[in-house]
Amino acid sequence: MILTIDLGTTTLKAALFSEAGILCSTSHATIGTQPNYHEINPILWSKALSTVCNALGNLSLVKAVVISGNGPTLVPVLGNPESKEGVLFAKTGMARTWLDRRPVAESAEISEVLGTFVDAGFFLPKALYLFRNEKQTYEESRWLLSSHEYLDYLLTGVAKAIIHSDDSQQWYWTESLVTKLGMDKDKFPPFCNPGELIGTVTALASNTLALPVGTPVFAGAPDFYVSILGTGTVEVGQVCNRSGTSEGINLCTRKPLADPRLMTYHHPVSPLYNVSGIISTSGKAIEWAKNLVGDGDVSFSKLYSTMAEAEPGSGGVVFLPYLSGERAPIWDPDARAVFSGLNLETGKRELLRSVAEGTCFAMRDVITVMEELGSEVGQLRITGGPSESDFMNQLKADITGREVLIPAMQDAELVGCLIIALKALGHFASYREASHAVVQTKHLFIPEPKLQKVYDELFATYRSLKPKKE
Fold first, then answer.
1. Which long-range contacts (CB under 8 A, 24 or more apart) does 214-218 make?
2. What is the pLDDT of residues 288-302, one digit of tens each?
3. What is the pTM of this model?
4. Domains of the chain with CATH codes
């Protein structure tokens, strides 16, 4: 059996698979109640981990563990793993999630030193902000880890920083840069790549979570990386769209795109590349709108039904979803959301639908930049909570003008972790081979041609309203 875990912003999910890739059981737990998710106490992750492990049942046959997580998230780890009342944890400071946009000055300083843009949400600006503004927590920290690395640490007692490819180190840190900024390089753990052995399950972790002592824990990766594998986005022109609180658009290309509006890494399948754009608040914007109109207790299924009652185009209302600044393609932490085109005929249905359409226009904006730079952009392969909605899937197809494929298992992060484990255990020679074998199709959505003109015109309005910071 293989145990895969994904630590999201609001939910921790886990699954047990056979070594033949067959899903045996799943479980999930909500990560506590937070006033916001800019900071979070990692003890909530630990409690969620205990909940899902208990719910999965017998873990005695688990032969490998792989974990993915949200990010960039920084966890100041102050102590060794401990166990109390069935919860595995370590003493930490508050974790700074990917939504934390405070390190603007630190971002500018690091960007100037490197000669390339480093966003305020990245790991190193967060570390520098901690160093300068929360000195005691920084000084007491033994390690500075990311979210999934922290869970690996709890299971194994080993601290490792997982980079998805050697060329992605620039998005993390170098020893010389850390030293130049005045920080202690020994607080930053050694690097490793996905699929490498981090360590094995300790007796402490085994006694707490009922995993076999000595079970290998292989390095996972950030959520976007494992989603690429878990959606089968392993051929040129395919796009992995990871949909949730935020929105990740990851294009598989033959060559890198050297443009500051996008990020380029090596793809899990060599020698291909992953060109990435991230939208800060997509699902979060829809949740915000849901609460704004007084429908906080309404299910998302009912919410989407209300949106569907409005005409495509929302009566001319256009929404820019910059509720927490924006990343790709404008990279502006000060950008703010906009409703344009409101009139006396605008009702709740139009307002809600315009927010959903706005998140799709933001996706199309990133895709358009990719096309303008000469890339082939084809089918979208979508994962995440909103992919359970036919309304949202069709809306994405109509606004982007592309086929939308929904994999049979929608938790692509868990499937991607499975693929990493299967390769690490020697069942497949490559990630491409494993992905083709494991990922199956559930449904395909086709763009509606008669809506093209409506959405083309509104998209032009959307782009005209953007801050001119590209």
1. 215/62, 215/63, 215/64, 215/65, 216/63, 216/64, 216/65, 216/424, 217/64, 217/65, 217/66, 217/67, 217/152, 217/155, 217/156, 218/64, 218/65, 218/66, 218/194, 218/420, 218/421, 218/424
2. 999 999 999 999 999
3. 0.92
4. 2-214 (3.30.420.40), 223-470 (3.30.420.40)
